[in-house]
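[INFO] parsing input record for Flavoprotein involved in K+ transport
[DEBUG] input buffer:
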Amino acid sequence: MNENRIAHYPVVIVGGGQAGLSTSYHLTAAGIDHLVLEKRTAMHAWESQRWDNFCLVTPNWQCDLPGHPYAGPDPDGFMKKDEILAYLKAFRAKVDPPIREGVTVRRVSRRAEGGFLVATSAGDVSADAVVVASGGYHEPIVPRMAERLPPTLVQLHSAEYRNAGRLPDGAVLVVGSGQSGAQIAEDLHLAGRKVFLAVGNAPRCARFYRGRDVVTWLADMGYYDMPVEQHPLREGVRDNTNHYVTGRDGGRDIDLRRFATEGMELFGVLRDFDGTNLLFDTHLAQALDDADRTYNGINATIDKHIAQKGLTAPPPSVYTPVWQPERERPALELAASGITAIIWCIGFRPDFRWLDAPVFNGAGHPQHRRGVTAQEGVYFIGLPWLHTWGSGRFGSVGRDAAHIVAHIAERRAGADAALADRDTAA
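[DEBUG] output buffer:
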């Protein structure tokens, strides 16, 4: 294709999720022409990569997409999957983005004359700026050892799990205890399935404490407005595993120890399969203790806040373990266990190979400051802790989008002013 004839846009947004559409909202408000490219359909991950009983783990009042705050009857509740989809559908209708769905971006490269060439499955376009809104969860992680497991064993990634009824009869091994792993293990457990859970290093937190949702306390304490530069871990917080908790049935703690008293079998991190046995680390007790330490630590910070502000609240408490592993089990014979399915809940890895720009560190992660990179015209939006805890969530992605669009508008104004000065000089 003749590059001189291709369509040109001031901004191209790659990704049609809540981050991309939030950016589109602010670009439209600023009067900046743009195009959104989405390889599937807008918001597709919420429908295609969530299980049937999925619900938010943050209260509905935190849903505050641009021009579209939660307006339902239960602000302190937790939207279920169908409610989330309805909320997002209404947001898309409000934004009415200039979007092309079913279009894959194959490569973004810099042009010698400035700007970018965006090669797609539907042809090429050019842009002055590119906003990467595709998130950081691209390739499901499944270990190579999975290739050596018996072919009769059903293996799914968490993104493929829907409900217990779609799995074969028998026990299920859930690998990973982050938000998805803990909640899927609970979903199977409540469905009456025998569950084996390989526990990782994910922390946990209380759902409610001293009369309020813990999220509400932390919001009052300013935690969700803390920029990444002020966090004790700085950018290292971006690598942290999310705390496990649930909004299911009105919200509650997830206590893996309690599950163990009810028949769920807990193991350490799954390391290998020797042809007969699944092999695990023997650090289960430490992982449970560490998770509880975080749980109690968060509650202690709330205690301190209440005391400092002189607030009236129910009395404090400290979680004490309801179960302890009597011994660490390093192996589980697969055939004797009755396991017929494995759900891999160990996350995703990013894939930005299509973006040809010097904006990545040695680990392949984008380098930026609140989404603005050192490469002029390249931006990121919707990544965890892009700026604050809520950057990858409904609560704060709109603020990040507004910041990026303001930067784009300022850059365009500067370019227009420079061009006017040249014309005047001529």
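[INFO] The domain at 141-344 is CATH 3.50.50.60 (FAD/NAD(P)-binding domain).
[INFO] shutting down worker
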